[in-house]
Write a structure and sequence with these properties.
Length: 292
């Protein structure tokens, strides 16, 4: 069993920590334990409970009503939610629960069912991206076991690669983008996601993958002359210096736009200069692709 902070619950459920504290005082469904320094922490089961309750509450059910339901009734009510956004959130929450339980069979089944029903692109944009955004916070704070991360990311990685290999776009653009991750960055799901979106729109992709030295990037750039460079930085190693990386890549790669997305761009406050451009959200990423 792993423990989660109230901030984890807030990030995963969308319910403010203040509201969660009020729920604890008024209702029976949360009974957090406390550390010797009096800090709340929550179990796997309590996290799953909050995800369920937050979903029902968001789509019209009063907390006082939910508090009277047993687990079976809560699950049945969730399945009856008809709004598209609610259905998407339900799938994302299911994947989070399966990850917590190390239930890889159910995790892959949930993902495969959605791909079969909605297609790979909608699954990527509506489900996988939202899932990664939510649990990325847990990865950064080490509130999930590395085994949980590896098991589920390998399943998603496989789905993305199968989706990429299955693309046969009849539209071809005279644009080439080189995709890579810098040294000490091995989390390539975001980059594979971008690979799929680009290839599906007929854009040529050079995929270097993860942990690539800038000298190797510069060598390929000189040989292939891509129109853009793109990297999506999620959680590099502890020795990674983002400021130094920006300086070095701007020196080594000149006259080519360098697009960077990922979590580090969202917290970076210094001014950036061409040829570097940040895409801080999924909307900005897709807008960039559309503009090519």
């Amino acid at each position: 069993m792993y423990s989660f902070t109230i901030k984890d619950l807030e990030n995963l459920s969308g319910i403010k920590a203040h509201t969660i504290r009020i729920w604890e005082q008024r209702y029976d469904f949360l009974k957090p334990k406390r550390t010797f320094t009096n800090i709340r922490y929550y179990s796997n089961e309590e996290l799953k409970t909050v995800l369920n309750i937050a979903l029902l509450n968001k789509y019209g059910y009063k907390i006082s009503h939910i508090n009277k339901m047993d687990e079976t009734e809560i699950n049945q009510k969730i399945l009856t939610l008809s709004q598209q956004e609610a259905q998407q959130e339900r799938v994302v929450n299911e994947m989070i629960k399966h990850m917590i339980d190390l239930d890889t069979v159910s995790f892959e089944k949930t993902l495969s069912n959605h791909i079969h029903s909605k297609g790979i692109e909608k699954t990527i944009s509506q489900i996988i991206f939202s899932y990664l955004e939510k649990i990325g916070v847990l990865w950064l704070t080490n509130h999930i076991n590395p085994a949980q991360e590896h098991l589920v990311t390998n399943i998603i990685r496989h789905k993305l690669i199968v989706g990429i290999e299955g693309i046969s776009s009849s539209i071809q653009y005279n644009k080439t983008i080189l995709l890579f991750l810098p040294e000490s960055e091995y989390h390539e799901l975001g980059l594979l996601f971008m690979y799929y979106l680009l290839k599906n729109r007929g854009i040529n992709v050079i995929y270097l993958g993860c942990n690539v030295p800038l000298s190797d990037v510069a060598f390929v750039v000189k040989a292939k002359k891509p129109d853009y460079l793109y990297c999506h930085i999620t959680r590099p190693g502890s020795n990674f210096n983002f400021e130094k990386f920006l300086q070095n890549i701007a020196q080594k790669i000149q006259n080519i736009p360098i697009i960077i997305s990922g979590r580090l761009t969202q917290s970076y406050e210094n001014k950036i200069h061409p040829p570097i451009l940040f895409k801080r959200s999924f909307a900005e990423m897709t807008e960039f692709i559309t503009s090519l």
